[in-house]
Queue: 3 jobs
Job 1
Amino acid sequence: MLAEEREMTRGAFLALLAQESDIKTVADLGRSKDILPAIRLHRPDAAVIDMDMLTPDGLSLIQTVFDELPETRTLILTNHGRPGVVRQALNIGVSGFLHKDSPPEKLVSAIRDLAAGRRVIDADLAMSAWQTPLPPLTERELEVLRLIATGEAVPAIATRLHLSPGTVRNYLTTVESKLHARTRVDAVRIATDAGWL
């Protein structure tokens, strides 16, 4: 399955894969909301997904695929490869990461490797992910900050996470302190730039 929002790029990938007799594309998608339903319907051996199609909480989609259909291996294609995101994705079960600047034959080879049960990680992306320090925030602090980044208000976050609004505000104060941020918006910017969100 191929998920790429740019139609011309998706068409080029499809043309490349059509030349391979041992690779069959069961679905090609241009909208992120179609990814999970298509994976559930087609149960592909490999799902090639453009990182730009993943919403700010897109890694939860990858986690869902890993939990529900562990036989479907996921390969993320990226232009930027923020180290924190790469590390987080690998920790939740992404089978591979490939830079979009890679030669076309590398994509074909990566799909075959995934189907054979191997992980495929671009060497430069892997090095940057492992050389970048881990975030100084706890998982709960990151979760609260992710929700703030999507525009949720403190009361809504409190309800969603089964916390009191005061506890959510305490988490945000701690986040601002740990990141040396002046405001919540500044904390979101710092964490996003570092690849933690």
Job 2
Amino acid sequence: MPEAAIVHIVDDDASLGEALASLFRSVGLEPRLYGSAQAFLDAELPDAPGCLVLDVRLPGLSGLDFQAQLAQLGIGLPVVLMTGHGDIPMSVRGMKAGAVDFLPKPFREQDMLDAVTTGIERDRQRRAVDGGRRALEERFATLSPRERQVMALVTAGKLNKQVAGELSLSEITVKIHRGAAMRKMGARSLADLVRMAEALRVGA
């Protein structure tokens, strides 16, 4: 079963927020309502895939300023913007800043659901990539300093004999360190190890 997704609704219009919450609940999504950008920032965010539905015109911090602040804070939730009449230039700015979609009010329910579904899928993919990188970093942290040196050199294309000469080791010792690095990293082949080194920027 995929992890339950949460839709964060930031809008000072309580009636619209409740209507959206009801819509999202009807398709099995969990809505969270916030009356302002600050209320969202003050809340504890759950560790779950999600999407942010945001009105571009909010009291205090505008929706676009809020979107920029989220990026600065490292909050990677995809954003769906809702706009009133005449806010199209603001929406274009929001899209250029990475918003999933912008929906002029009044919008069709299906358009909102489509945009939110796209946002949640994008967030699931981001979380999978982040999780994979974290797992790689954790495995890399188990390598000894010598294993890291050997991994950096062999994934840079050097032969065992060249690595041995560079590190003043015997070739058999290099093979042992290389085998240990591959085992600890979970690499099935040298190509696997090279991809991992690139993802970790080993030797970069």
Job 3
Amino acid sequence: MAKKSGVVNAEFLQQLKKKTDGEAKEVKNVLENASVISAVGNGRKSIEYRDVYEMQPAPESWNRYPLLKGDQPDRYLELKMAIYEKGVLNPLALWEHDGQLVILAGHNRQAICKEIIAECQGESGFDENKFKYPPCIVYGEDEITQEQAVDIINDTNLYRDFSKLPNKVKIQITKERMEVYKRRRYAKGERIDQLARDLGLEKTAVYENLSIYEKVIKPLQELYYNEKLTRKAILRFVFFDTDTQQWIYDTYEGRINEAKAKALKKNMGRSDISRVFEQEGRGVKRVTVEVPEDRVDEFRKMFSEWLQRDLPADG
């Protein structure tokens, strides 16, 4: 049935087309007489039909979401089959901006329409216009701001499987959504609750994403984004102020790894941190010790003095 991910056999599509032509005409008739509520709350917008080949994707700095074809190919194929059956049912959102027709919502739908045209063009009975001119809502140049355009992109991508996105994208989206909720005057607790619901996350995961974005310096973040450190390891750096983090990175860049990051503890001073990173070839085993709550500081001091007797002094 499918030759490769996202590409559907044209003969199969033709057979499917015979079954769904009548339904597609009914949908088109409904859309032609319909309007939708504007995403920015300024009344209703009439449905327009625009050429997919004239549409441009939103800049990457606005749109953090990868296309489904590479990110979630099963979802992409499912959407492609649905569009072939009945056409585009959910209108694309476009913005006439700087002389271009910029896609705010519908990047996957545009790509699929172009793909179907390329695969089926020239086949007997194929209705190219059904896919070349999908229903759209179009915002004029001065009708929305760039900030509102980005909000539309984010709002219309909430259905995506957040767990499948790259780590860097997850962190960026979490931060950007928090800024959106802040502008919408959500209380801080409400923002976390709403974001957890929207992204399908536990609230602790939301807090962790925000901590990584706001409290970990960029060079260390990149180690997490590049999968050199796990989430648990990168969060250890939240224990330290940004000056200390920068010192760790500048001094021990080549030695930062999963085991050493996880060995970092809250309230460690630079001498203690140095010992963590300068242990080379030593067998290290994690030991958990329970001490009375009111003697924690005393225990840390005693343990630190013991380590200083056993390990080489700082250079």
